[in-house]
Amino acid sequence: MSKSDLTISLNEILFYFTRAAFGVNVPIGLSEDFAHSNIWIAENGFDPSLCSLEALNNLDNQVSSLAIKFEKLNESGHFFCHEDKFLSALEASVSVVDWIEVSTPTDELKISNVDAPFLVVSAIGANQCSGLTVSWVDQDKSQYQVNFIDNEIWEIISSSVNPIELTSGADMLITSFDANDNIPQGSNIKKFNVTKAKLKTLNNGVQVRENWQGIYDYFSRCLVKSSAESRASGAGAGMVDTD
Amino acid sequence: MTADTVLLDIDSDFMRPPEQVMRLDRMGSSFPTRLSFMRTLIRRMSKENWKFERTLREVDKDGHGVSIYSASTPSRTYSLIAFTQEIPPEMRTDRVIAEVWDATFNLFDGIPSQEDIDYLANNTPKQEGGRYRPSELVLARANKSLRVFENVIASLAEGAQPDLDLLSSVGYLMRTTAVYGSGKFGCADRAKIADREECRAPFQMELLAVYLIRWFTIDSVEELAKERGGEKAVKLNTNTRQFIGVGNSTGLGMAPFLLKHPALIHNWVVAKETALARVRSIETPIQGTLEVFLKSLLQVSQHVDEWNVDDDVQAHRISCLTDEIQALRIWCEDESNIFRPYPWNGIYHYVEDNFSLECQEMIVSLIIEPHGSLVDDLADTMSTTLIPKFKADMPLTQLKAIVKDCYQWATTIDFSLEESQHHFWYYSEDKLEPRFGSKGVDKGVEQEMPLAIGRDVHDLDEMLSETKDEMFIAEFVMLYPQFRHIIRRIQNTFLRPYSEVQDNLLGESMRPLDLLRFKLAFFGASKFDPKSDLWTRISMYQGAPMPEQISEPNHDCWSFPIVGRSQSYPCMNCKCQKAI
User: Fold this and answer.
1) Which of A19, A224, A225, A239 to mutate to test the interface with B (most CBs of B within 10 A)?
2) What is the least distance, in Å, from the CA of A182 to any CA of chain B?
3) CA of B473 to nearest chain A CA: how many angstroms apart?
4) Cβ distance B72 to B50 under 8 Å?
5) Strands B536-540 and B526-530: what pairing?
6) N or C: which end of chain B has fewer CB within 10 A?
7) Interface pTM, i.e. ipTM
8) Three-state DSSP class for B534?
9) Radius of gyration of chain B (CA)
10) Is A85 helix (H, G, I), strand (E, B) or coil?
């Protein structure tokens, strides 16, 4: 299971990604949300390990932090990390979804210096929030806009051909979706139908590539080393069972 | 029947409350009922007239090779692909950490091509070491019960029926040691099949695989006997065939599932308890049902006589149960005790007041049994599609009130005592085998599985008591993210009162076995045979109709089977009405 280039199931994403986050000391509740976001990523045809490994690495290397603060400014809110680090997308994503639930539809939300913006997008998708636009400019100055049009349809509009999963280090803005907004010329547009994409994934499985090994390594931190004693007594059953 | 309809029954005076039902000692005394998932599956097979066929048997004279057994519903076919091999006796273990097995299986979604069979031949015998695809619904393995397997072949090869005493003492030819579904090791996710009519009830594909494995084991001994004895060989007689179940050895892996799916568990329990409440609330019994119940007491007496275990605790319980069933029969002989208004409620109360939990739960099963027309609809309510959501807009005052009102069982445990946090659950690096450790003895506390529901609620309660009321939960979890999971759990279970095991799962006296038996009873397992506090052997499908009997009118009469007579007591639903 620890090799890369595997086809895995959505249930395996839940199992391994929850524990991979737990393996870098993310509280279990956030880890569960992280795994559900990754399921949404996979259901839509992406390799979930691509963006998530970076976010876990950032936490493990203390480049990012789960510490989060919120300030309210008139009609908008603002999430940021008060430490001199990236705001971890694992914390940003759940806080954003919570904010969407308690805010009014016209409110705007800024999230500063998020390490893995696509994880925030995926949390919004996984929680079936619609009528929203998420936009950001990443460290490479590429512009991204994700529109959650309704519960079925979402789209990516970007100035870059780089994979959206790899965007990093961005200030994000969440606003109400406006179908009349102009799309900048030369943008790449990709539309997704959640139901159709999920059906395809269920029938074909989820391809994970070289980053999978890193996810598995973090997952492995949740495993307890076996000893002769635990092997003999921990499961209560004998080592040989003939009858 | 909708979930809402079922919820109405929760307020019935005849419902047993969660604080009575969801206790480890009672859960660990569970028996299967007619709502158990194997029973549901067999009823569906019969109703829809499923067809069964052995489509491939490419094995050597010792039975090693590949075989395929198919089950066809009105709309699709499922195929059990079985690989068999020779293994050294000392390599047989029921543990997850086993490396080889006598037989390994996949339940394939459809009819496999030669390419599929070749792919699986390279993977299935490796079990967890192989990789599977969305076309595979189930992965399983089984080992022979050497003494029974060989005895049956030898007898049949000589033209004789096998030793019934020996057969009865074990109850099966092979024992499964794992049955994986729902996306394990790359297999199909449940979501792929959840909308199919035959997959709506829980674990139907896993239990279809087990049903086909049972057929495979019986077919195998008959074929091997023919190979050995030639024309002299005979087949098993009908009653013996039907009596033979398939064994299973279950360890700790089942316990985390129970704790991680509280809404599902609520639905299982509320269905069973609603069935009991409906029966208890009958003022005038449906004609013939009391007579059926009285005859069933005779049958379970024999069933219990045939239930032999080595475990001292369970052996004592069985001995006690034998006496109690006898005492109940005597009590029932006084017609004034049972021929009166609300007879089922009267029987239930008499048993609850006088007999052990083991007897109480067996009687629950027996009094539900003759009431298929009244309760079978509840089987449709036992699954769930709920994905627990975190509700950020809940006021903290509401959360505080919920914890106070609904989780007293947790907040009143004194977790400062060493014995209250004696145990922890963990995954071993040995093939991810789930294990149960003792603090101060075993390593791995830091990697504890998050299954300590009571302790987490208790800690949350303490933190809430120090927090001002004027806060939204969204703010609270920003400050204290370590409580996010338990708050989500509470938010999604407080309206589902049968969701939680209302005991301390870390306590020194905690027996995981109780959780295993509870879940296995819902599957329909019988003859619980504990081998320690952490694992048990069981029988599945003992007494169930074979594929060629699935359309017979008595297909649903197989609870509490007895050797030599496959028929259970007369069933009010199929009108078979055969005498004991």
Assistant:
1) A224
2) 33
3) 9
4) yes
5) antiparallel
6) N
7) 0.95
8) coil
9) 24
10) coil
